[in-house]
Amino acid sequence: MADKIRVTVWNEFRHEQSIENVRKIYPDGIHRAIADMLNANGFEARCAWLDQDEEHGLSEEVLRNTDVLFWWGHIAHGEVRDEVADRVVQQVQAGMGLVVLHSGHLAKVFRRLMGTSCTLNWRDGDRERLWVIDPMHPIAQGLPPHFELPDTEMYGERFDIPTPKDIVFINWYAGGEVFRGGVTFERGRGRIFYFSPGHEAFPIFYDPNIQKVLRNAAVWAAPRGERIIPDCPNPAAMEAVTGR
Ligand code: ZN
Asked: Most exposed residue of 8, 12, 51, 63, measured as fewest CB within 10 angstroms of its CB?
């Protein structure tokens, strides 16, 4: 692994180009806002997006040189090519970290890694309080016991995911719902963090607590050893095999 954690921030990058209100909040895209914040804090972050090229900016080479991939998508999950999604899944299984944000819960890469529908209840316009329920978790370091987002989109249970490895955040909404809003998984050698805030119509990725979570998540999800693509070798016996 390089000295700095190498993050690729992948974004669908459609709303920022088609909706004036979203463009005002993220003039260069959600990906650029997150990457700039990471680069200002000691990470080596670059961007990739859906319409960047035939491979959505996620060539084998880009992924091999990515320690942690961030993923934001919403209306165009179906336009992500299957072979690119498979490539991301394989790299996660080999050890690349994956941080899935907000509406990325329905992304091909996340659903394939989870094996469930990853559906949830949602409602536009609410107030959210995030409770840190695992304060010793690396992703929770430096955060207060709870913090609020004044304008958010409600994501509520049930969230159809497998039982997480860790539940770092439980979100409460003024409308009455709760949600497992920050959860971790391991798939193969890779670490995965899903984090629910990040609706494009609100400046959520500029919130200092949210930014801290993203930085902590990048550190936590970075590979801890050599990346190994899983395969099925056929080794010779180490000893003389008897009884056959
Ligand atoms: Zn949203």
From this structure: 51
